[in-house]
Amino acid sequence: MIEKPINNSKKEEWLVSIIINNYNYAEFLEEAIDSALRQTYPNIEVVVVDDGSTDGSLRILEAYRKFVILILKENGGQASAINCGFSVCKGKFVLILDADDILNATAVSVCMSAVYRAESELAKVQAPLLIRSNDSATNARRFPYQQLPSGCLRSVALSKGPASYPSPPMSGNFWSRYFLCQVLPMPETLYRKSADAYLFTLSPLFGEFATVEEPTGIYRLHSRNNYWNNNVSYEKLRYQVCQYKQRCLAMEKYASLQKEKVNAKQWRLGQRYYLAKIVSLWKMREGRSLPVSFRTFSRAVIDSDISIRKKSLWLMWFLGMVIAPKTLSARLIQAYLRLQFRVSSSPLTG
């Protein structure tokens, strides 16, 4: 394990690593790399990990070989690419940039300014991103739309578990090397996609958060973006359920190492999105008893920090799933499990 950070009178000289993970994003790759290389902060290294691309990515990357640390590997998923990139980078802080996103030129400078101002040890600096989309309803809006929390989130995370607070996408996070050294390499099988979820889960246990209010980059919304993909399938929901269970177990493990007593099962039973996915999986494969009782679901909803109207909609959704025929329940699943509604003005938001 790396030693904890110490005060340094020359913080402005700290090296910052930008790790770009790419898989078949040739149409976006140049903008991502250029945005990393054009940072106004003077001490940057850019590591590009190509995870076995089969499109035109390699041709593009050859042009940047003199300017970046380039790693070409067989396809293993996002977690594998991040583990690989972190194993060679040397920065005191690390920004992991998805290859379909773009950084503002001042992104690292702004995040380092937050580091300078911090009076406590930071796990990360975070900032919202602006959405770039062909959809006028979402284009140029901030993501996430919620106010990002600052300070110590340890007690909240230990009480409510993973997904207990809003986080920006991967490219909006500026991680301390100390934190990453405690939790990487991350498990690769369950984080082939959405690897940022693993880091969001554990970061509150290793330091405070500092938040930059203004967006530090662009989050591209497109049909191949895993988080925003409209398709809801049994396999996709099952993957998300398994991943959330693993997040709970990972947090339980690290909390236990820190002598904290927690209950991963209670976290799962209190997470309405997780329970909604369990109910949705049941509806897709009816034939056994309902896996979540109305009492359990209603308790999770009532304890949520949302309006009474939204709580009522959640409870109506559950009852509708139980009694609706499959043709109608498919539409109900789309209504609550398509995550686009989080940036819309839909009454289903939250």
Strand order of the largest sheet: 3-2-1-4-9-6-10
> Would you state the CATH class of the largest domain?
Alpha Beta
Quaternary structure annotation: single chain
Which percent range describes the beta-strand content? 5-15%
Structural class category: alpha/beta
What is the CATH architecture annotation of the largest domain? Alpha-Beta Complex
Helix share bin: 40-55%
Uncertain spans, ≥5 residues at pLDDT below 50?
Answer: 1-9, 339-349
The pLDDT mean sits at 89
Helix/strand order = EHEHEHEEHEEEHEHHEEHHHHHH
Provide the gyration radius in Å.
21 Å
Shape: globular
Number of strands: 11
- How many domain modules? 2
Descriptive report:
- With 350 residues, the protein is of the alpha/beta class.
- The protein folds into 2 domains: 14-220, Alpha-Beta Complex (Spore Coat Polysaccharide Biosynthesis Protein SpsA, Chain A), CATH 3.90.550.10; 237-343, no CATH class.
- The protein is 40% helix and 15% strand.
- It contains 13 helices and 11 strands.
- The chain has helices at 26-37, 57-62, 78-88, 107-117, 154-160, 177-183, 196-202, 234-257, 264-269, 272-284, 294-302, 308-323, 326-337; strands at 16-22, 44-51, 69-73, 93-98, 102-103, 122-126, 129-132, 142-143, 173-176, 208-211, 217-220.
- The strands form 2 sheets. The chain has a 7-stranded mixed beta sheet, sandwiched between helices. Strands 5-11-7-8 form a 4-stranded mixed beta sheet.
- Strand 2, helix 2 and strand 3 (69-73) form a beta-alpha-beta unit.
- Helix 8 (234-257) packs antiparallel against helix 10 and helix 10 packs antiparallel against helix 13.
- The longest helix has 24 residues, at 234-257.
- The radius of gyration is 21 Å and the shape is globular.
- The two termini are 39 Å apart.
- Residues 1-9 and 339-349 have low confidence and may be disordered.
